[in-house]
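Take a specimen:
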Amino acid sequence: MAIKLEQYKIFNECAATLSFSTAAKNLYISQSAVSQTITALEKELDTQLFIRLARGVVLTNEGRILYDQIAQALTIITDVETQITNFKDLKEGILTIGAGDTICIHFVKDYIVRFKELYPNIKVNVVNRTTTELIELLKSGQIDLGFLNLPVKEESLTIVNCLKIHDIFVTTRKITKPVDYDHLLENQVLMLEPNSNSRVYVDNFLATKSILLKPTMELGAHEVLLEFAKANLGISCVIREFSKAYLSDSLYEIPFKQSIPSRYIGYGYLKRRTLPMAALKFIELISVK
């Protein structure tokens, strides 16, 4: 049986109007096309659907049964088509973004504000997780976009750099001359927890200098590192771009003879997944310099 959806749409219009000519006008096709379609449909189903009268038609019992079911099915299909069109036109929909707390506050937040101004009918959900956790959420399709502390190696994801960042150490005491990284071994050091991408990146760099730090405290939030450094509890490892308010007020960046190489914040999405229009529009905002 090779009945097409368009045949059922024509049948539905005929059953609703009980007139092939009226159905033809409503569908903007010829009456002969309507008649041929109904005849072909009856042949495919091997049953009579309409009784042809001098003026109009009436449904047979079989036709009435079909009409009751097809009308409901077409309503569902039409609703889904409308919803998909609205999603594409950004008249409705959901965008789910994943990011760590610090990236949310200092980078993603401003883009969400701009996005909501442009597309107020799109609901934006934000999931706060570590980079490692966000990768798993992306792979399972639970979020559309994930903002990640790079570098990240994951073959299933497309990853795009969007903000260059610099890992630095800050303290309340201003140091004017560049120092070696041995300076850190002589002081109390505060760092992020060992499972964070930022911490791993800095640890790996320091290892190339034969420096193995044993932090006094390992904390879970960038802002806590800044506040603790401000309280003179130790030297904190932070991101320069996300610490500007403190660097212009109470903390100083320690000058080292060799800086830690820069890295990036980036966004990632699942390669095999077609991104919704809302996600594509959000990416467009980030791409505009």
